[in-house]
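hi! just following up on the protien thing from before. the input was this:
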Amino acid sequence: MRPRRERVWLFLAVALVGATTVMAVASAGTASKHATIKVGLITKDVTNPFFVKMKQGATAAASKAGAQLIYAAGKSSSDNASQIAAIENMTTAGVKGILITVADGKAENPAIAKARKAGVLVIALDTPTVPKTATDALFATNNLNAGILIGKYARAVTKGNTVTIAMLDEHAGSSVGALRHNGFLQGFGIKGSDSQIACVANGQGQVAPSQTAMENCLQKNPDIDVVYTINEPSAAGAWTALKSAGKSQSDVTVVSVDGGCAGVRNVKAGIIDATSQQYPLLMASRGVAAVVHYAKTGKKVSGYTDTGVNLIAKVPAPGVPSKSVAYGLAHCWG
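and the predicted 3d structure came back as:
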């Protein structure tokens, strides 16, 4: 049997070790609670003003919340390989959530699934995945409705006359591109097989490729008098080609989607007749807030959050709700 004094010292030593262990666990828990929350943002490219504003919104929201923003982007609107690599890198870096405007809508899904399995909250911004359930949530414009608005506007201002249409899309497989394209057709009241559609081309959502695409469309049919464009950089490129071909603003109705400041100024100048304005800063700031909330509470956001869309037109069309250019400039981005 151990002497009484030795047993007392042994008891105190064990108690001290136990207390030290409890203190270490408590300390580790406190450090984890106050560790910097990392939020990932992945956009399609770095040049489109829409994504520039989205990054600005996410940066400001992260700074306000005391979080760290990790940013990555593809080289173009169809570069899903860079996005997949970014998802993997961000997951390894320990982000609590990833906000992403997917390039393809399907190709990124396996990487997204791995990230979610690792406990990362994944929110699609602007562009839904296919299926939408591949991500935890979607914060976006109703892109179908955005297309419907400009389709209705184009139909109204052309007064139901037979027209010749060119459609400048994004790359094949773009979910947001398909929604806007189909929305325009629905709003205009035609199907994709309608004989009024003279040309469908990939303008890549960028100025130079869209100029080339429009030039090719005009070679196919010089009588084009209605132009749908996936976004405002595409509309700017299309207008350059139309102007070079001798078309005036009164000859062609050009409609688009975005609502960036440059695009709204082009509405004011008559280059674009109407555009559906969306709000990327709101998408990004709400996305960051959702990730921070998840990091602090463990509660994930889910489903679809509509961040709004308004038609901006210099000349209103009968029966089509729209906002003024002044409103568009007050709420534009870029």
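The radius of gyration is 26 Å.
Residues 36-141+279-301 form a domain with the Rossmann fold fold (CATH 3.40.50.2300).
cheers
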